[in-house]
Every structure is written in structure tokens, then in C-alpha cells.
Task: inverse folding
């Protein structure tokens, strides 16, 4: 419950970093020249916001790991013949935040020495954006595996309702276009496009909100069941 109560603060960090980083509102364009990218990082108004927003993002990535682990714990409560799904989701939990951290480091490197050659600044910027946008397989696999776990939970009172699996499949589908970001410089698949940026980030935000509510209900129900069992044992 302590970890679950920390989730609103994690979400606040995500929102604060998203708004603070000038490259997100609106997102930078992949068609910017090396000089334009270098000028963006050299701007005295942008530079401190970039640095502080990336520091916030680092804490968001770390803070998300314990919350995601709560999902793994709920999967272990499901009626499965094998623990492989919980282990697989745990691997995805480790991979997703790590990729966010790599993107943050690249943005920080671009802002650390803004007076370096424009081509080098552009390279770090490209690394950050491509990593942040296109490296969604861990997130997609996490949602698909969670959907499978929900589907195969055949106990009379499942841990998660069946619609939670369908919701995770929908989130996985919304994230899929972002995997092709490296193929486009403009349009909906570019890293600033409607599919790769706006749909992807909206899906992640919605997933965090919905799954936090579902987790809260599941954990409260688990605690109630344990109290009832303890009461029955004591009366017996």
C-alpha cells in the first residue's frame, strides 16, 4: 500500500518533466538541422529546463519500478500452472525504465556541453529521441503478457477482470506505430508525429492511471480476504 500510494507522486514527476522540457511542448522536429538543434540547446532559456526536466525523468523511471513490481506480485496470485508469465513481465519491468534512462542520459549529454560541434549535439539529440520513441517493444510485451496472464487466470474470482486484458492489448496496439519511428523524418510516424509521440505518450499516461486504480482495488481486496481468513482461523 505504501508503494501504491507513491504512484500519484510518480505521475506528478512525469507530468512536471513533460511540461518542463521545452523539447516536448511542442516536440522537436527530426527535420531540424544540426545548427538548429545546437541553437536549441544553447538557448539560455532552454538549457536549465532541459537539465532539470531530465533529472526529474530519471527519478520517474526509478520510481516506476516498484509500482510495476506490484503488478508482478498480482500476477503471481493468479491461477497459472507455471510462474513463467510473472518472470517474463518482471523482465519487461526491468527493460522499459532502463530505456527511458538511456534517453534521459543522451538529452543530458547534449545539454552538458552545448558549445560542442553542432553535429555532435545533433547526434546525442537523435539518440535520445530515437531511444525514447522507438524502443517500445518492452512496453508492448509487458501489456501483451499481462493480457495473457489475465486470460489464463481461470479461478472463480480472478485477480483482474477480463476487460483489463483487452485494455492492455489496446495499449499495446497504440504503442506499436512508435516502433517504426526510425523510418520517417516527418508525418505520423516521425518522433514528433501524432502516432509515435502523442498517441504513444497518451497511451502510457492512460495505462498508468487505469492500472493504478485496478491495482488499488486488487490490493484492497487481497487485504480484506486475508483479514477474513485470519478471522475464520481464529474462530475455528
Result:
Amino acid at each position: 500500500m505504501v508503494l501504491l500510494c507513491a504512484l500519484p507522486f510518480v505521475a506528478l514527476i512525469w507530468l512536471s518533466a513533460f511540461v518542463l522540457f521545452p523539447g516536448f511542448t511542442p516536440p522537436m522536429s527530426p527535420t531540424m538541422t544540426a545548427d538548429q538543434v545546437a541553437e536549441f540547446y544553447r538557448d539560455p532559456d532552454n538549457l536549465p529546463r532541459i537539465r532539470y526536466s531530465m533529472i526529474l525523468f530519471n527519478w520517474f523511471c526509478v520510481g516506476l519500478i516498484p509500482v510495476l513490481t506490484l503488478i508482478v506480485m498480482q500476477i503471481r496470485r493468479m491461477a497459472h500452472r507455471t510462474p513463467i508469465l510473472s518472470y517474463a513481465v518482471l523482465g519487461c519491468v526491468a527493460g522499459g525504465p532502463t530505456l527511458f534512462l538511456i534517453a534521459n542520459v543522451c538529452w543530458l549529454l547534449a545539454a552538458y556541453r552545448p558549445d560542442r560541434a553542432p553535429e555532435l549535439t545533433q547526434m546525442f539529440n537523435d539518440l535520445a529521441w530515437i531511444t525514447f520513441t522507438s524502443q517500445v517493444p518492452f512496453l508492448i510485451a509487458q501489456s501483451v503478457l499481462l493480457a495473457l496472464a489475465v486470460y489464463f487466470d481461470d479461478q472463480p474470482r480472478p485477480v483482474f477482470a477480463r476487460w483489463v486484458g483487452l485494455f492492455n492489448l489496446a495499449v499495446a496496439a497504440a504503442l506499436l506505430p512508435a516502433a517504426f519511428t526510425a523510418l520517417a523524418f516527418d508525418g505520423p510516424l516521425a518522433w514528433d508525429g501524432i502516432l509515435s509521440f502523442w498517441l504513444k505518450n497518451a497511451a502510457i499516461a492512460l495505462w498508468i492511471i487505469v492500472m493504478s486504480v485496478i491495482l488499488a482495488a486488487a490490493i484492497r481486496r487481497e487485504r480484506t480476504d486475508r483479514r477474513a481468513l485470519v478471522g475464520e482461523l481464529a474462530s475455528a
Notes: The longest helix spans residues 194-235.
